[in-house]
Amino acid sequence: MQQEPRPSRRYPPMARHPSRQQSGEAASGHLGRLFGLLRPYGGRLALVLGMLTVLALVNMAVPASIGLLLNEVFPDRTWWLLGLILPAILIGYLLRNLLFYASKYTSVAIGEQVSFQLRRRLFQRLQRRNVAFYRDRNPGELSSRIMDDTFAVQTFIQEEILSLIQATCMFVLLVLVLYVVNWRLALVTTVVLPVHLFVFRYYKRAIKQTSAVAQEKLASVHGSLVEKFLGMEVVKGFTAEHREQASFVEAIDESRKSQLASKKLHVLQKVVADLLIGISTVALLGFGAYQVMHEPTNRSPMQPGTFIAFWGFVLMLYPTVTVLMGGMAKVVKISACLDRIDEVMNEEVEDAGATDAFRGPVRGHLSFYWVGVGRHGGRPVLRDVTIEIPAGTFCVITGPSGSGKSTLVNLVPRFTAPDHGRILLDTMDLSTCDPKRLRESIGIAQQESFLFNATVLENLRYGNPDATRDEIESVADLTGAAELIAKLPDDYDTLLGERGWHLSRGEKQKLALTRALVKQPRILILDEATSSIDVAGEQKIIRAVHETMMGRTTLMITHRPELYAYADMLVVLDEGRVVYQGDTVELPPDVASRLDDTAHGMALAGAVVDQAG
């Protein structure tokens, strides 16, 4: 066998996951990120802005009308003017509600669309992560990123963006009107605004930190729930319900405390803002009363009606400032969710490699040259593995538990990446192959068979959506799954339930193996895929696989010596090294002894499992 030269560097450390981004963006930066999400909907947002500007003007007409009543209608009993003002106020209320409905509906629609696009992009991004990524992540935590964080952004857009835009329009118009009506009173009114800004900046960082912790705690609760539900048989089997109850109570209590800490800061900020408004109100009333009652007439004293109108504008301004400050605090809070979303979007994805790597059909010739895979913080899993597996070979891989068998076969579909060495498929370096196109040629059945919450037919067709019912039934006959399916209530249309929970491990393995063969792969990987099937059934299935995969490559991990007879090639691993590769006609004594010990140990383990079951 022709071999490549041995690499000089051995066992490099495992690559670490990229560190999480630390965000120190200012409030303007947070707004920029939000409006970046909203940019595709600029036209509709402009329409909302126009409607809210008109709405602000309509709202301001009410105190102006009251001032007009006090100054013009009441003193001179001007009935015709009263007849104009009252219908105008009624029309204003009607117009206000129409504008509110239209702007609210538009913002809700935008929020739904942004949430849809975010979730689509997040799921698409997560699907491009390698399998190792999911081994290190809690599925509930990832689900929280897709659903909870995006829902928070959606709610902010639907509820807070509208309020922020409306408050901004109202703030600008009110300040302009106040200075036009009486600049001195306006100065007293607005002098406190910089203090509001200082208060916001003071609380901003703490609000973001507590919000981030609250989201992490919530995600942790989600992850714990998913894990416990999936492992409920184990929980009940070990009568650990009380421990899990205590653990769950502790988790939700931590989440409650973190949520409370976050909301406490929001309330404190509002309390401080309201106290500032109270101080401004006292100053305004005092100075306004002085202007109305004591200023000489030649200085154009303020009429009572004008002051009441001014006061009405101020009563609109201060709540508007409160809304703005609260909204900006929520912008900071939502930025914590955006940070968590960005972490997913910025994670490295599987390298697509050269898109033209495959030319013509895959033959299935596999070459491993000095391949090494390390384990973070421990011994290497594979050590300088060099194997040549010709196309069409039925290769059996065996060895003690933990010897690196699963890691070896996981290198082929690029579920695991080697730390050093090269792996070739038909002379093509796997590191340059598009993972998706590579896996289109590979079928996989594993010891832990995962079945979707779908019908039997949908599960079997998963790897080959175009497979006909006749093709699927033909494969099911070969694997023995047809007999199992015939016993189900609706045969192929039976809904399996979450993870196929009502099937035995052996039954699930039969269905998973059938699914892999329905795909008609050029390379079939069986990772102890028949370990829970009885010996007679296993022999029948492997015989059928051997015949079906004739001319195509099969990699089968097993500990059962009776299956070695089907092998064109046997590979024996021990402590990450290849200790034997060749035929099964005459094994070296030391290799035969190793295999006997391994088979005996696995038989004992299997007997214990059978008795427990």
Quick take:
The protein is of the alpha/beta class. The protein is built from 18 helices and ten strands. The chain has helices spanning 27-38, 42-76, 79-127, 131-135, 139-181, 183-190, 193-230, 232-237, 241-294, 304-345, 405-410, 435-439, 456-460, 469-479, 481-486, 505-518, 535-548, 589-612; strands at 366-373, 382-389, 394-398, 420-425, 428-429, 442-446, 523-527, 553-557, 569-574, 577-582.
In the CATH hierarchy, the third-tier topology of the largest domain is known as ABC transporter transmembrane region fold
Largest beta sheet: strand ordering: 6-7-8-3-9-10
Name of the CATH homologous superfamily of the largest domain: ABC transporter type 1, transmembrane domain
Unreliable runs, pLDDT <50, ≥5 residues? 6-27, 603-613
Query: What is the count of β-strands?
Result: 10
CATH architecture descriptor text of the largest domain: Up-down Bundle
* Element string (H = helix, E = strand): HHHHHHHHHHEEEHEEHEHHHHEHEEEH
Oligomeric grouping of the chains:
single chain
Number of helices: 18
Our count of domains comes out at 3
What would you call the shape? elongated
Helix content: 55-70%
Structural notes for this entry:
The chain is α/β, with parallel strands linked by helices and 613 residues long. It folds into three domains: 27-345, Up-down Bundle (ABC transporter transmembrane region fold); 364-441 and 523-613, Rossmann fold (3-Layer(aba) Sandwich); 447-520, 3-Layer(aba) Sandwich (Rossmann fold). It is 62% helix and 9% strand. It is built from 18 helices and ten strands. It has helices at 27-38, 42-76, 79-127, 131-135, 139-181, 183-190, 193-230, 232-237, 241-294, 304-345, 405-410, 435-439, 456-460, 469-479, 481-486, 505-518, 535-548, 589-612; strands at residues 366-373, 382-389, 394-398, 420-425, 428-429, 442-446, 523-527, 553-557, 569-574, 577-582. The protein has a six-stranded mixed β-sheet. A hairpin with an 8-residue loop joins strand 1 (366-373) and strand 2. Helix 5 runs antiparallel to helix 7, helix 7 packs antiparallel against helix 9 (241-294) and helix 9 runs antiparallel to helix 10. The longest helix is centred in the middle third of the chain and has 54 residues, at 241-294. The relative contact order is 0.09. Residues 6-27 and 603-613 have low confidence and may be disordered.
